[in-house]
Amino acid sequence: MTIQTAPIVHSANAARTGVLFMLLGMLMFSLNDVMGKWLVSTYSVSQLMTIRSIAALIVLVPFFIKLGWRNLFLVDRPWLHALRALLFAIEASAFYFAVAYMPLADAMTYWLAAPIYVAAASPFLLGEKVGWRRWTAILIGFAGVLVALEPSAQSFSLPALIALAGSACFAFALLLGRALRSTPDTTLILWQLTGALIFSLAGVAANPAGWAPMDLRGVLCLCLLGIVAMLAHVLVSRSLKLADAATVVPLQYTLLFWAVVFGWIFFDDTPRWTVIAGAALIVASGLFIFFREQQLKKPLGEVTEVV
Predict the structure, then answer these.
(1) What is the pLDDT of residues 73-108, one digit of tens each?
(2) Residue 223 exposed, middle or buried by CB count within 10 Å (0-12, 13-18, 19+)
């Protein structure tokens, strides 16, 4: 998701609250991952995504009404919005499919490489300048992906390939978010959720036999999945309004810590040493790229974009 914040002065108390909100947001995202991995053992990805999207849309209705339906649907470059929504729908579906067959830490490692893909593609797609330092970091990040993947005939399984494709879709969706940075966050969220709902309904229509019977407990769990994800987005958005991006964005890498911990507690997953080594290279590369971009930005007067 692209979050836009105007340049504001952050007090010490506000910054501490922002840090807390970001940490809580990452914890909520991790709980969303755990719930998703657990639920896809019973329900198809399309069914999970359908109920999740409906629940999230219902929760966000007051925000949609406040902004006004005209501002939500009458947008500039609607095809870019539609493409971004499609990429996010494919990315989310790929993630839930991948975690059904691989440890959380493995899947999260591939997804954390998305900012590296963005940095590598931005010179060609957005015309941004990337110096030799960031190109070095990008190459190190790609090396981390290869180390984590541990290339072999066995590692190139369907779940691993889908995980890589999903993280690539995530990266290109983030690039489109840069191009649509003037669009209000609420509008972006509506298009993203609507795209996910349409995409998942198409999956249900293609395989209606895959729709499993649901009792009240199942419906509540699937709805809770969507609500948890939306709360995570709200916490992250609020964090970026309370504290500087340079303070809170690196905390997003705590996702990997929670993936390892929750994977071990709930699914008895123990990450391979290659995943740990690759994740270390990816995190180091991503942090360098982020702080280098922050350093090169103009001091004030520009909108800050964080992904």
Answers:
(1) 888 889 999 999 999 999 999 999 999 998 898 888
(2) middle
